[in-house]
Structures are given as C-alpha cells and as structure tokens.
Amino acid sequence: MKNAELRIEKGRFLNSQFSILDSMLVLPALLFFAVFFAWPLVEIAGVSFTPSQVSRGATPMVVLRDPAYVGVLWFSLWQAALSTVLTLMAGTPIAFAFARYRFAGQRMWRALAVVPFVMPTVVVAAAFSALLGPRGAINAALQALFDLDRPPIQLFGTLPMILLAHVFYNVAVVIRLVGGFLSAFNPSIEEAAAGLGAGRWQVIRYVSLPMALPSIGAAAALTFLFTFTSFGVVLILGGARFATLEVEIYRQTSQLLRLDVATSLAIVQMIVTLMVSWASARLEARASVPLEARPAGDIRKRPATPAARALVIGSLGFIVVVLIAPLATLLFRSLNLEGGHPLRYYAALSENVRGSLFFVPPQMAIRNSLAFALVTAALSMLMGLPLAYAIARDADAQRSESRRTRLRHARLLEVLLLLPLGTSAVTLGLGFLVAFDRPPLDLRTSVVLLPVAHTLIALPFVVRAVLPAIRSFDPRLREAARGLGASPLQALRYVDLPLLAPPFAAAAIFAFTVSLGEFGASLLIARPEYPTMPVVIYRFLGQPGALNYGQALAMSSLLMLVTAVSASVIERVNERAGR
Amino acid sequence: MTHDSFGASEDVIAEFEQVNNVKVVVLKSGDAGSTLNKAILSKNAPLADVLYGVDNTFLGRALAADILEPYASPALADIPDRFRLDPQNRMLPVDYGHVMINYDKAFLQEKGLKPPASLRELTEPQWKGMLAVENPATSSPGLAFLLATIAAFPEGSAYDWRQFWKDLRANDVHISPDWSDAYYTQFSGSSGKGPRPLVVSYATSPAAEVFFSEGKLSEPPTGNVEGTAFEQIEFVGILKGTKNRDLAEKWVDFMLSKRFQQDIPLQMFVYPVLPAAEWPDVFVKFGQPPAQAFALSPEQIDQGRERWIEEWTRIVLK
Fold this sequence. Notes:
The structure holds 2 protein chains of 2 kinds. Chain A has a single domain, classed as Orthogonal Bundle (MetI-like fold). Chain A has 25 helices and 2 strands. Chain A has helices at 3-7, 19-48, 60-64, 67-100, 106-114, 121-132, 137-146, 159-183, 188-195, 200-228, 232-237, 245-254, 259-287, 306-333, 344-348, 362-396, 404-417, 425-435, 449-472, 475-483, 488-499, 501-517, 520-524, 533-540, 546-577; strands spanning 437-438, 441-442. In chain A, strands 1-2 form a two-stranded antiparallel ribbon. Residues 1-18 and 399-403 of chain A have low confidence and may be disordered. By secondary structure, chain B is α+β, with helices and mostly antiparallel strands. Chain B has helices at 10-20, 32-41, 59-64, 105-111, 140-152, 161-170, 179-186, 205-211, 245-256, 258-268, 281-286, 298-317, and strands at 50-55, 68-69, 92-104, 131-134, 174-176, 198-202, 222-224, 230-239, 271-272. Chain B folds into 2 domains: 10-97 and 231-286, D-Maltodextrin-Binding Protein, domain 2 (3-Layer(aba) Sandwich), CATH 3.40.190.10; 98-230 and 292-317, D-Maltodextrin-Binding Protein, domain 2 (3-Layer(aba) Sandwich). The mean pLDDT of chain B is 94. Classes of the chains: A mainly alpha, B alpha+beta. Chains A and B meet through helix 6, helix 12, helix 18, strand 1 and helix 25 of A and helix 1, helix 2, strand 5, helix 7 and helix 8 of B.
C-alpha cells in the first residue's frame, strides 16, 4: 500500500464561502504577534544598530564573516539535528505503543512522560550529576563492583551528555504529538494491510509511518527548534566549551553589552528558524492525507503478540530509566536523612525563618504558576485553534487556481508561526523593555507580560500540534453535520472536538507545561509580587547551605507533582468534553 | 531596581514604608550585569527611582552610561573612605564581600592535603581536577576571580595571568556557567556533594553553611583559602529622571542607616559598609573577611573587561 493510493480519498476541505470568517479567525493571533512579537523586535533592532555605547557597528553580515561565530552556528545546527534524530528514534515507538495498545496505568505513564519538560536545567543537572556524575550513584556502584580507581563514566561536559539531556527534555514532545495524532485516527487501515498479507514491518513502513508523517514532521520541527536554541542544557551540562547561538547571545548581552553582536546573532538564528519552519510546513502539507476518524470507544488493543508486548515493555522501560530515574534522585535528595524529620525541607518551605521580605509561601508559588499556566493555555488555545483551522482550510484550497494568493498567505502564516520558538529570549526580553516604555503600552512591569511571553512560545506549539490532525481529518464528516443543519460551532463541538480530542489534549497540555516550566521570560520580566515555582527554585539555589539546597529540591519535587497532576487532569477533562 | 540577590527583612522595609507613608516595590531584574543593562536601556523612561547592586566590576560602565544623579548623602560621613569609589557620589557604597576559593575540609583531610597556600599552588599536580570556577563571561563571581588573578599575575610580569590560566587549564579546572552550578553540582563541600573539593565562592559561604544547617553543624564543613580573594563593593544610586527625588534620597539614606546595615549580613551574606553596624554571631565566628584581598580600580576594570574576557575565553575554552 502506497502513499499515492491513500491520497485518492482526499476531498475538498471546505468551500470558498468562508473567506471573511477566515480573516476573523486569524486576526486575534495576528494582532497578538504584531504587538508582542514584531514590534519589540523592531524596536530592539533599532537600538542595537544605532551607534552608541552598546553598539559598535556589527551586523548579521559582519558576524557571519567571523569564523568563531560561524563555528557557533554550525555547532548549534548539527547538535540540534543529531538531538532531533535521537529524540524521534526514542519517541516514535513509544508514541505507537501508547496510541495502539492498552495497558495498566497508561494515563499515569503518559503524565509522567511530560514532567521532564518543565524541570529547570540547573535542577536536572543536579539530578544527572547524582546519577551519572563522577561521584554519582552509577559510578560509585561500578567502582565498588570492579574495584576501579577512577569513575568509569565521564559524561559531564561532553557532547553525549548534551544529547542525552536533549532527549530527556524533548521526547515528551514526540510522544504527545505523534501519539495524540495516531489516537485520533482509525487503525483499521493498518489491519486491512495486514489482512492483505503485509508483514509487520511492511505495515509500519508503508502504512503507519506515512500515516503519522505529518505529526512526526511537526514534532521534529519543534524538537529541532528547541534544541537549536538550547540554552541551559548546553551552558550547564555541556560545560563551558560548547556554545549555541543562544548561549553566545546571552554572553554578548549580559557581561559585554554588545547589543549589535547579540542582535545580529539573534537575526541569524531567526533566519535558520524560518528555513526549518518552511521545510517542515512543506513536508507536512505534502504528507497529509485524509484519514478515517477513529470509531467511538477505545481503539487500543491489549498487547497480545510478543512483539507488541516487547514494544510496550521497552517503552515503559525507557521512560523509567531515562526519564524517571533522574527525577527520582531529586525526590530522594529532597528528603532530610541526616537527623530530624525526613520532610523537614518541605515543612521549611512554609516558614519565613529570616523574616525575609521576599519569602514566598509554597502554596502561593504553586498558585501563581498554575494561574499563569491556565491563562497561557486558554490564550493559546483560543487564538491557536482558529488559526490552525484557517491554515488547514486555506492550504487545502491550493488545488483551486483562483485562490493562489490566499494560499500563499496561509503558507506564509504557517511558516512565520514558528519564529517565536527560534527567537532569543534575551533579545525579545530587551525588546519588551524598549518597546513598552510609554503609554498606552507601558507594560514593562505589568503582570500581563508574563503570560504574554509564555503564550508567544505556547501558541506556535498549539497550532503545530493540532494542524496535522485537522488536515488529515476527513471534512465530509463535518460537511455532513452542516448538511443536516448544524451551525459551524455545533459541528466543531459535536464532530471535531470528540474525534480530535487526543491531539487537542496534547496541545493544551503543552501550552500549560510550557508556562509551568518557563523561566527565561520570568527572569527578563520583573514582577516581584508573582514569583512562580521555577523562580523560587532559583532563589533557593542562589545561596549556600543545606537548608537552601533542600528547599530547592523540595520545591522541584512539588513542581513535578503539580505537572504530572495537571497533565492527567487536562487529559481527563478533554476526554469528558470529547464524549 | 536590583539584582536577584537582594534581600531584606520584612519589618525593616515596613519601617521605612510607615515612616515615609509609601510602598516600596522591588524590581528584581536578573543577575548584576543584566540589571545594569536594563537600567541603561531604559534610560529614557526609568523603571525605578533607585538602582542597587552595581558592584566595582561594573561601576565604570554604570558611570559612563550617565544614568545616575549625584547625591551626597549625609550618611556617607560615617562610611570609610576606601569604599567611596565615585567622588561625585552618583554611586554610594552599601555593602562589600569577597569572592574567594572555598575548600571542603573533610575531603582534604581524607586525602591528607593542606589547603593551597597561594593561587600559584593551584597549578600544581596535587590539585589536578580539584577546582571548579565560574565562567567570567556569564557569572559575576567568575569575573571577580578572573580579576583577582589579573591583579595577582599582572600583565607584563614574567608569569602573567594568561600563563596562570593556561596552567590551570592543563590542571583540569572545571568551568561552570554560574555560581549555583559550581557550588551545588561541582563542589564536594556543599549539600549537592559534587566531585571537586575547591570552588570559587564567597568568604561568607562557610558561615552560611552553619546558619542554614538548622543547628546540625557547629563548625563550617568548608573553609576559605587565603590569598585568593577579590573584594566586591556594591553600590546604590538614584536613577536620572526619577519623579520622586525626595523619597529616593530618603531610601538611599535608609540603606546606609544602622537599621538597614545590620540587616544586611543574614539577608545577603555580605558585610555592611557601616563600621558601627553590629554583626550576627555566625559572622563573628565563621564569617570573618580575609586578611588580604586583590583589587583593581574601576577604571582599569572598565577598560580591560571586554578584552580580558575574550582572551580568557580563548585561553581556557577554545
């Protein structure tokens, strides 16, 4: 069975009567990007390229002629490519396992898999160090076992460490996006292929993979951009000898205040982002085929064959070893095992021993984090879903000659959409500072900037997460509902929503967790009244002493708990709504 | 407007708010470098009335950026001259501290080693793979330590700082991006139980270890290595264009008053510049400043910083 044969079914997604509706759908998101993304960048570029104390004539062309920066660009590119390949290799089989098979505690496993995504890098570094470091558990065990003088595993400050950490952080993106996509569509076509005599590998090669390709493409694009702009992982786990563009931008800004160099590098980074985004948008549009929606009820089967069992056990094994083991060491270290109550550090979170002005009760940090995450998820779903529908619809009109121009708009939108993910947080933060310094938008110290900054990252995520599913969704179902007299909203509520619940859940969960774990923006935007959990963790890690360290790890453990619980709650709510 | 490490007691700030009938809003703006950058970039529409947290390594940049108004606070009369680095009083000293190497007592004892007697000794084989420092391009203590080595091994001498860092590199020094990673993930003497017994930290870190042990420790598990210190002085100044000049002056006076100065040690783990301010017990016992510290003038630092960081990066990282 080949791609081409699947494509025969492809029908028109929608007719042209919706052009006004289309503009209304994309307008809020466009306005949002214009005000909170484009404008600050234009302003900071203005400051950076006007000769002054902070600018001495560097431009993107100038930095690209410097071999040192070209080296940084090259490293950013190939480590991201390598990280993406590894992440896809690890994540895709797990996504298949979750989408196709039913096993005990599935929702819990899936919730656990997103936890790494929110963890602050410095805490993750501590976890990896406790496990794999020169004095970590594994090295200690190996040394004791084989009577070695030196720790046998020397990972810190090496490329494999960076790659491992990138897989650790991003595998959830693949699991969720590809898994959500696969669970939305009917696996009967796989069974049909098998019934026609295709072997297991043939089914995967010619049916399952082509079917999932749009979502794999989306996950690859997102993972590539996250690792291409990687900051904390490269800075902390890679040691000082590795640098991505993002690290170099921070270096040029924070200590050297060379905004011309920093902004030039940021522009180079954005150009690469656009190229990646364009390539992935092309791939996704080409690869998407209309698929039959899943039937009502559970489409998953018990893993009956040995191969299926091996896939499920292998997937869970990966989650335990790579994702949970490092996090478990944090949990262990957050306990006080040297006299006193074991939960001492958790209790201390609620005590303001030094009468500090900046004391934050843990429930307040949790509340702030949850509130920002809710607003971010709501904003990005409300703007992102209509945008995704508009893009899917417009792009589908590509075969109709008369709408060439509008098509280009849609493709352009889809490509531009990923730009915030490839934009330096440092540069954008300074952009906020210089753009929003006068009425009517004197927002520099306003609390709204935090969810706004989070939404800039979450919104592209939401659109890319749901777009493959919306594109592959057979429009005849919706058209049938409309034909029977349903309003567009009713069709959305009773046709799309129930059937597309899994990818929508994936989008909402990521919008939520992007905000829960985001720290860069919280750092750039000063709002002392509303410290979030990551901010509190960094504060504790800023001072020496057992109590500070213990409290940082206790707060990290609470962050894990909040993330896992939120992820499963969103999934449950979504399942309800989908019924 | 301040860096993230600013701390104060609730009741101390409440006192200022009550007396002056105002609400104090603290804008924590990232690390010391980022905070100053933000102040410079928002010059035309200042974010705050007062800027705190510029230290002597950034003083030159702050003054050159012309973002501060002079204020000859009467409180300066009680503060030793050596802290007053800006004759025009645009930046007034508030506190000082020392970046220096800490060592893990238990680790050294187990290996039968004595703490290094000098910076130079760190390049010897017995200290191979034992030291963690912060990257001066991304960390304020990292920059301070680089400056200490430049003051100790000046340019033009037979053994200059470049040679020293080449030797340190050959001796497997670890470069961390920031203090938290160096102290908690790399240093063996902290609760993070890292692999290395020497770390660039602060003179008050051993005292903080006792203070934050909740009575479990009566002696610090770590000690300071004499002869490795660089003195950091932190300043406060009134931002140009403030609409509350009166209150800004009152706030600066307040920061230099005994009430605020005595609050400094346990909130920020640095020393108050006011000699009359009393130190808490844990500082008196375990947090004494080093006998000797390296120093460079703000002008020297301002002129050299960018070049030194670039050269350091080439020598140590490339």
